[in-house]
Design a protein that fits this description.
The structure is a single chain. With about 725 residues, the protein is α+β, with helices and mostly antiparallel strands. The chain folds into four domains: about 80 residues, no CATH class; about 300 residues, Catalase HpII,  Chain A, domain 1 (Beta Barrel); about 80 residues, Up-down Bundle (Hemocyanin, N-terminal domain), CATH 1.20.1370; about 160 residues, Class I glutamine amidotransferase (GATase) domain (Rossmann fold), CATH 3.40.50.880. The chain is about 30% helix and about 15% strand. It is built from 20 helices and 21 strands. It binds CIS-heme D hydroxychlorin gamma-spirolactone (HDD). CIS-heme D hydroxychlorin gamma-spirolactone binds next to strand 4, strand 5, strand 6 and helix 11.
Amino acid sequence: MSSLASTVSAAAKRSLPGTTANQKLSDLSADTVDVNDSKGLTTDYGIKISDTDTWLKVTNGNTVGPNLLEDQIAREKIHRFDHERIPERVVHARGTGAHGYFKVFDNRASKYTFAPVLTDSSRVTPVFVRFSTVAGSRGSADTVRDVRGFAIKFYAQEGNWDIVGNDIPVFFIQDSIKFPDIIHAVKPEPHNEVPQAQSAHNNFWDFFNLQTETSHMIMWHMSDRAIPRSYRMMQGFGVNTFTLVNTAGEKHFVKFTLVPELGVHSLVWDEALKLAGQDPDFHRKDLQEAIDSGAPPKWTFGIQVIPEANEHDFDFDILDATKVWPEELVPFQPIGELVLDRNVDEFFPETEQVAFCTSHVVPGIGFSDDPLLQGRNFSYFDTQITRLGVNWQELPINRPVCPVINFNRDGQLRHKITKGKVNYWPNRFDQVQPVPAAQGGYVEHPTNVNGVKARMRGQKFAEHFNQAQLFYNSLTESEKLHVVSAFAFELDHCDDPLVYENAVQRINQIDGNLARKVAAQVGGPMPKEPGRDNHGMKSASLSQFFYMPKVPTIKSRRIAILVADGFDASVVQTMQATILSASAVPFIIGPRRGNVYPAGESTDNKEKAIWADHHFEGQRSTMFDAILIPSGPAHAEYLGRSGRVIHWVREAFGHLKAIGAIGEGVKFLRDDVQLPGIKLASVIDSADVTVDYGVVTAGKLSQPNSATDAIQIVKGS
Ligand code: HDD
């Protein structure tokens, strides 16, 4: 057995760590090698390598001559390196992924579909999910203002089913023929390839001005949805209208939606901007850390369903991807849950090579005449050929867990070897497999189609503003303020007056007040009258506050405890224990990475020291969800002398984060940080807790309720 083969089988035998085993993971393990199992370095063709550091040369013992082209080992190494890159995705190039599973609660969806993946509760369907931004290149930052992709591959027993969705329920355009235009407009401008991963530039806003169907989506794009706190805290939407067919042959239109267990949360814009530089991998690391630390993200999976006969009952076209189906009209029905519980072993073969296609559906699920979906069904298949080659469906991450057999053949990098004398159908061996399936095959729902060929859109597609208003009206006041600031930021980055002046006019067609607030900042003409009346209607589920978990939770949140030598050990211990008991993650931030000593302990007493995970200059408040400052006179005095630590706390306050302090920590807040107008506990012996604007303070922790106090402080409530 070759060394490669032996390492493959060793890896295949090893159970995969920290995860629920599933059929897809076992399938992948057959192609997984572990460098730790290897018996030594080899070339790609299996011979052992004894020297990987020096190219073969000519020498006379004293001097060394030129490299020899003969060196097949060196040539192979350089040649493989030269060809490591493949084209990045033309959109959604920046992303990250994880494995997990999908499970339905019961068979409640069988009213609508016979697809077992949606109706059989005894099944656990493996999934791979890739999250992404849209506009940026593969190496761009995670926290930019953008739509987030939420693509799911279900490895079902009947074949792969892909939902290639976003965290926003609508799209910029109605007809897929406009996709190259909207993407060219948002991507870097052609003359100078600027800006990277930004919609804040002339071309994007020029397109918005001229293509009014973008109105609804632009409102979502300017809202907090476009700067999520975490991929784990976003909704997921299939966006397009699909169809479901039940055993009685009845057809329903359907939209797929996922709701995160942790609620929908966003960064604030200043935080997002800073994180893009301070930690460009913020979302990627967040997902990986949560899974590794045993906090697997979970979503409720639900459907909105419209019977075929009711297709035309709405004042919008249900096949128009720039429209939501308001939940007041079409309720959200939860049917299952999706959990991500395993990180990838290697990014490239899994996350980079995974390829999704909207045309991948299983029996019981079908397409609709949604003109965006119809074009997508062509585009995804097509783009994978540029990226991965024609045999991309054979790649381990893409291949289904059910049998695949057909007469498709050959092409570059074909892996599979198929036995048999014929590769066509019908053939003289017509009883030999593979014959077309007698049962369980994919059958299109019989649909009557007649008419004349014409380049046109449905009549209701002409209305572009009602739901843009509906979305804006449904936001809370703070969400609305963020929309104003987002427009103002973006248009400030457009230097062509034609662009920002027209944009103000267009915003005025959505909402007059909004347009005036934006105009006041960006220098556009101040509109005198609204461009159209606002209908005033709202839909509760459009605001992300609608998704606050019923029981508030800080599960998986990152909480920084700021310490310097001389801190109060018992307070820090209580804080750490309380954070952990709430399934959140405490980090000690100190003057140095290493031991920090509590009050009364000398540097000789290492057992009493606490280990600081990071130092004040090494991290920033942006990377944490809350900040705690324990008591201890010398420690608080040190913090008060450090401009960086004062900035940590002021910045966290500016980003609306919970801040908690005890004893001398409160004194530090009052005298050094000087939070404006915030009520703080007076630093005496009292255990009374003062809460003001997310700042929670107490003179000391009460006994025996110190854990409760600490929880309150951690939650900022
Ligand atoms: Fe798309 C990638 C989501 C419209 C053409 N799209 C891509 C990805 C997501 C979406 C999440 C990344 C998948 C991954 O992680 O690999 N796209 C959407 C949504 C849309 C949408 C929710 C509107 C409902 N897309 C859309 C249209 C077209 C495309 C109208 C073309 C007609 N999209 C592509 C693509 C990509 C892609 C060019 C690039 C990489 C890939 O497909 O695999 O084919």
